[in-house]
């Protein structure tokens, strides 16, 4: 475990560090239900690009959101991890697909910097702020902002991918 800036009596926060496209992010460890290795992902037809697929998780079907797609990063064939995040009492669990999961980082809550005003709207919709660490800037992700229904509500991350419709003649002929 790596500890950053501990001062006696300071309110500390435990963050799970993760990487996507070479950038360092963190998410509150209290919101993580489980970290899965490479999970069997099933594609969802007509889903927005940020929906990486669905996974079977302990008898549930969980929608997995691709952090790469949300950040506008190209797809990769490299090994990725899925974090299963707990929802609130009335919300379902969901997954977050990331390139790599690091360790636990302890940060002081009061040292979080707000999002800069120059940040684009999509990033503002995902990020809660950032912490400076010896490893670089740790951008905090808010699980509630990553929830698939919440992402869809913003309208910032694209529309559903539509397959071209066949003409009436093509459908009758089975083309």
- Give, in spatial order, the strands making up the sheet with the most strands: 1-9-2-3-11-10
Strand content: 35-45%
The shape, in one word, is globular
Order of helices and strands: EEEEEEHEEEHEEHHH
CATH third-tier fold name: OB fold (Dihydrolipoamide Acetyltransferase, E2P)
Distance between the termini: 58 Å
Instruction: Look at the structure and name the CATH superfamily.
Output: CheA-289, Domain 4
Average pLDDT score: 81
CATH class: Mainly Beta
Helix fraction, binned, reads 10-25%
What do you see in this structure?
Strand 2 (12-20) and strand 3 (23-28) form a beta hairpin. This protein has helices spanning 67-70, 121-126, 143-146, 148-154, 168-173; strands at 2-3, 12-20, 23-28, 32-36, 51-57, 60-66, 81-85, 94-98, 100-108, 127-133, 136-141. The chain is an alpha/beta fold. Helices cover 15% and strands 39% of the residues. It has one domain (2-173): CheA-289, Domain 4 (OB fold (Dihydrolipoamide Acetyltransferase, E2P)). The radius of gyration is 18 Å and the shape is globular. Strands 1-9-2-3-11-10 form a six-stranded mixed β-sheet.
């Amino acid at each position: 475990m790596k500890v950053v800036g501990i001062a006696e009596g300071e309110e500390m926060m435990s963050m799970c560090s993760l990487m996507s496209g070479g950038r360092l992010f963190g998410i509150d460890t209290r919101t993580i239900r489980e970290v899965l290795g490479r999970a069997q992902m099933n594609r969802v037809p007509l889903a927005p690009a940020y929906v990486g697929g669905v996974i079977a998780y302990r008898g549930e079907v969980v929608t997995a959101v691709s952090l790469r797609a949300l950040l506008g990063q190209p797809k990769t064939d490299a090994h990725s991890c899925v974090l299963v995040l707990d929802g609130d009492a009335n919300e379902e669990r969901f997954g977050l697909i990331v390139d790599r999961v690091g360790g636990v980082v302890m940060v002081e809550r009061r040292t979080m910097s707000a999002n800069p005003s120059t940040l684009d709207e999509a990033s503002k919709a995902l990020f809660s702020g950032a912490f400076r660490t010896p490893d670089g800037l740790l951008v905090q992700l808010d699980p509630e902002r990553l929830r698939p229904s919440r992402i869809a509500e913003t309208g910032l991350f694209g529309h559903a991918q539509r397959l071209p419709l066949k003409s009436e003649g093509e459908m009758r002929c089975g083309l």
